[in-house]
Amino acid sequence: MTLFGLLSATVAPFVLGGALVDTGWTAALMAGLCGPLPLLWMWLQARSRELVVTRSRVRKRSGILSNRTTELAHRNIRNVQIDQGPIHRLMQCGTLRLSSAGQSGIELTMRDLDDPEAVRDLIYQQHG
């Protein structure tokens, strides 16, 4: 479910025709707690991931409650893709996708990455 869907589902039962409906203190409390939760979850997801480019490999770590690590050696990287829509181009962010010779599909995906072209150039520079 998208953030907009969550917020509209949380707020819609309490606001009808521009007037707040009296639903009691429990409903108001739930609206106050549920509204910020999706934003907090998105913030936690953004803070709990990292992309590290070393001289020999690229490593992605992500996870809030558990960790998942994906590593690719530079010598094995065969394809680097960058996806940027119009808004992402304005904000200078995008999605970086890496695939290697050993796999048929994309092995490493990093969404909402700041300046993905600079990261791609760094990978190429380290690969030499």
TrEMBL record:
UniProt xrefs under InterPro entries: YdbS-like_PH
Transmembrane domains' residue ranges: 27-44
Signal sequence segment: none
Keyword annotations from UniProtKB, A to Z: Membrane, Transmembrane, Transmembrane helix
Residue ranges constituting the YdbS-like PH domain according to the UniProt record: 48-123
Descriptive protein name: Bacterial membrane flanked domain family
